Amino acid sequence: MARGETIFEKSNDTLHRVAVRAVRDVAPDAMIIEFDRTAGFHAGQTVALTIPDSGIDPRWYSIASAPTEPVIRVLFDIVHDGALTPRLARLHPGDYLLASLPRGSFTDDPTRRSAWIANGTGVAPFISMVCAGISAPKTLIHGSRTVERLFGRKLFEAVPLLEYVACVTRERDDRFFAGRLTEYVEQWDPPLDARYLLCGSAGMIVTVRDILIAKGVGFTDIVAETYF
User: Fold this and answer.
1) pTM of the model
2) Distance between CA atoms of 157 and 63, rounded to whole angstroms?
3) Is 88 in contact with 33 (CB distance < 8 Å)?
4) Which helix (H) or strand (E) holds 184?
5) Which residues pair with 76 in a beta bridge?
6) Does a structural domain hold residue 109?
7) Does residue 200 come out as left (phi exceeding 0), alpha (psi in the -120 to 50 range) or beta?
8) H/E element holding 153?
9) Are residues 165 and 62 in the same domain?
10) 74 and 118: one domain?
11) What does pLDDT average to in each consecutive run of 10 residues of the chain (228 residues)?
């Protein structure tokens, strides 16, 4: 899923031709594309992508790989009536993309207590953060329609310092909260000494921010990245 910030500042950003290394399905209508890295990045940053000679404006995507890897990995939903994602889904290893240098300030301090809240593919930057390593307690609350779309679940469940809470709306599984992410947050007691990073749909972010503030979390302790 692309970020809400879809305007590509062509005067400031340069696109680089990069080779695709892998394209794979991770759930119905959700895929990961992996391509050569042209520069370093910080976990939580984004990269703009398009296809050479397509005339399609670049779209911004959160990076879902570790900063130490030689590739960049992006998780996206296929928007079937969209311009770019159906074409990304048809690429193969050896094809080429145009990619910007990574950028963005949606980053976290791995040594500070934080709570990460995401729905859908909005979990991508938190995959990158976990892969980069954490040394302080973190909580991840992830909302999904189905268990299959709990992207990164096995990775998250294996991290001792990470409390992982999955919220699933269309299936019932005793391992996960049955209901919307926002319903879980409404009955949750959020730590007031934590920093909050929210990533996902605008509706989720607005609702969760309001709930957190009503529970005593400071407005300046909440950072958000909106997807569309």
Assistant:
1) 0.94
2) 20
3) yes
4) helix 181-187
5) 31
6) no
7) left
8) helix 153-157
9) no
10) no
11) 46 84 97 97 98 96 98 97 97 98 97 98 98 98 98 98 98 96 98 98 98 98 91
What CATH number corresponds to the domain at position 82?
2.40.30.10
Domain-located, residue 154: yes
Asked whether 187 and 205 are in contact (CB, 8 A), the reply is: no
Domains: count for the chain = 2
Question: Which residues span the domain enclosing 200?
Answer: 114-227
Tokens of 177: 């909260």
Residue 150 to residues 59, 104, 112, 142, 173, Cα–Cα distance (Å): 23, 25, 25, 7, 13
**Residue 151 and residue 213: Cα distance in Å, rounded?**
28
Is there a single domain that holds both residue 146 and residue 55?
A: no
Asked if residues 47 and 37 have their Cβ atoms less than 8 Å apart, the reply is no
CA 6 to chain centre: 15
- Retrieve residue 178's tokens: 């049955």
Tokens 């928007």 correspond to 79
Residues 6+ apart with CB under 8 A from 173: 147
Q: Answer yes or no: do 118 and 219 share one domain.
A: yes
Residue among 122, 8, 10 nearest 62 (CA): 122
DSSP 8-state assignment for residue 65 = S
